[in-house]
Amino acid sequence: MAKTVLQSININKYFSDPVRVQVLREVNLAIDQGEFVAVTGKSGCGKSTLLYILSTMDTDYEGELRIDDVVMRGKTEGELALVRNEKIGFVFQFHYLLNEFSVLKNVMLPGLKLRKHSAEEVEHKAMERLKTLGLEKLALKMANQLSGGEKQRVAIARALINDPIIIMGDEPTGNLDKKNGDLVFDIFKQLCEESNQTLLIVTHDQGFADNTHRIIEMEDGRILKH
Amino acid sequence: MNLKLLADIAKALLLARWKQSLVAAVGVTFSITMFIALLGFMNGLNSLLDGLILNRTAHVRLFNEVKPNPNQPINLAEAFKGGHNFIQSVKSSGSRVELYNSGAIMRAVQADPRVLGFSPKINAPVLYNAGTIDINGAVSGIDVEKESKFYFFDNYVTSGKSLDLKNISNSIILGKGVADKLLAEIGDVVQVTTSQGERLPLKVVGYFQSGIADFDKVQSYASIATVQKLLGKPNNYVTDLQIKLKDLAQAPAVGKEYAQRFQCDAEDIQTANSQFETGSSVRSLISYAVGIVLLIVAGFGIYNILNMMIYDKMDTIAILKATGFSGSDVRKIFIGIALTIGILGGLTGLAFGLLISFGIDQIPFNTAALPTVKTYPVDYNPKFYVIGIVFSLITTYAAGFFPARKASKVDPVVIIRGK
Ligand SMILES: Nc1ncnc2c1ncn2[C@@H]1O[C@H](COP(=O)(O)OP(=O)(O)OP(=O)(O)O)[C@@H](O)[C@H]1O
Ligand SMILES: [Mg+2]
Fold first, then answer.
1. How far is B12 from chain A, CA to nearest CA, in Å?
2. B322 touching A, CB under 8 A?
3. In this predicted complex, what is the ipTM?
4. What residue segments make up the domains of chain B, in order of their start?
């Protein structure tokens, strides 16, 4: 049996602004190494909220979160930053590249931060990633000179730079046209098949979800089925 | 090497907003420039004005005051020891104003490690004779070389050579005011009469201008030997010993000690000129205050620009945090930006301050009171430059601290959701 890389046990989440409402109810899920999982559900059912908790950016929740068999509760802000840096690759809906830097530097930054490899090695790795995504010609362009689809692929390259145990995405194709969306999906699929990369992707696109290994359907803060 | 990465990011953010950053840096530059120029000029003036007094004042002066003898004979008489004796019409015993055993005192003073040097002196009240009128005055017998070395006598001799006092016998350097009254040219001979009625012709070898006109109207200088001859005294006759110490602050203590040890009177510079330090310190205080106020204003500039930058770069901060940079990394980046502005602005400020100081140094400044000064005085003390750069670092750090802390607290979830 494959190793569980991400596990949530009885996670509850409340927002108390303006009144206390529960947005996640008893969320239990486990994601194994190499799985390609889609999270779907109506707008407002708590998908993003769950993803922010699972990615350690939101620490204000009840229940237990384990990443790579390590409990996240009790870790300091700095330690959680390190977990994100080392183990999680994040792809957002609105590409979120740093406009002050070149494409290559954008991809390199998390790797430079981790300092597991020398700057030259990180650069080499970043170039490799860009090549596999067909972006090597853009490497030296500034991030704000790219099209939306290109930006999203660069963001995927960046998410991959530290060989994370899981890649999370919050509607990564939501802002792209059909062609670019398919391109991104193909990349995910390829990563999963060729590199055994674990992926957890929130999506509204039923076609996208249908092509993954597993769909987690949410409603009203609850998981309906996995 | 984490710091190098953070510095890289700071640099990129700085360059992305380089116009505003430049404005902030120019603010710092301006205040540091003013700070340096102001302090240099103020302190130049201070040391000039202090020098007027300090250069010519002994740190400790040993002399014998004309005063009644505290040990009146009746106090020594066995029969009256127990009582309190009232004596009327006591007269001062001013017969001997010389320092007793001056040779031994000089040797002892010379051997004292606290002493930088000393210059012996004889003060003699005289009358200058010019035709039918007599002008009141005083002649000081000095050791020209020592007086020049410790009290800058040279600087105040405006015409003639001070060393001629030593080399030409029976010579005198007249105060400029005295010379004007006597219509005495260099090379003329003037008649000088002592209070005892001795009269001696002395050859004028120079003029002396102290910067204090009243002083120059009465004072003249001659060599010690000449004055001894004028007074008909032996060659160990000295009335004053002007001692310069290595540390001016020790003057009161040393003065007290010497008065005890040599059985004479001692006056220290702090007692003699208690007021001069007040002016200096007030002037310094004003310059520091102005400099610091300017820096604080510049600090607000930096604060504003960093705040703007943070609002502008919320997305960048959020993405940095989402990809594994911690709050403290983000804080360091913004502190780094602030300090870069501070260091660059501060260093340019030091350079401009130095340039302005050079400029002030070129402006002519002629005054009759200060014959040796031709341009405005400027103090180039490196201390001001160190203080300037330290101040600029402290203010920029303080100005960057709160924006940086705000940036470190940015919650990436809020930003990412807000898109
Ligand atoms: N900061 C907040 N304060 C209060 N309520 C919030 C806050 N953020 C989100 N919510 C609420 O929590 C619920 C879940 O939001 P979430 O963004 O997780 O939904 P979602 O499933 O991602 O929706 P969508 O598909 O539209 O992105 C929503 O009802 C939303 O209004
Ligand atoms: Mg959402």
1. 6
2. yes
3. 0.91
4. 3-54+276-418, 58-73+93-271
